[in-house]
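FAQ: What does the model actually see?

It sees only this:
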Amino acid sequence: MLKEGGRWAESVKLLDFKLQGLVGDTLVGAAAVAYIGPFTAKYRRDLIIHWVMLCQNDKIPISKNYDLIKNTVDAHQVLKWQNEGLPRDSHSTENALIVKKARKWPLFIDPQGQASK
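And it is asked to produce this:
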């Protein structure tokens, strides 16, 4: 069991690690929320990979293993959405985070009626 000082030191290390990629993570997350909504899952993934590579090429600090969902919304919120009926695939989770994070109302094309839930 860690002593109080050990836990604090671990927390500080974890926070320092997360802060290293804050600028690039925020940049890619904001771009994703603003632009990837109408695209397919494969095209979204390709765009995010391209944006991450651009950040790395331009020396913008970004997390090594950037993941839109993990960097934009916490796991507890994702579980809550899934318990409320959101499908468990990443495309649906991305759609939910875009709806929650975007400033404007999205246009839903929803033949299966999932968005109304």
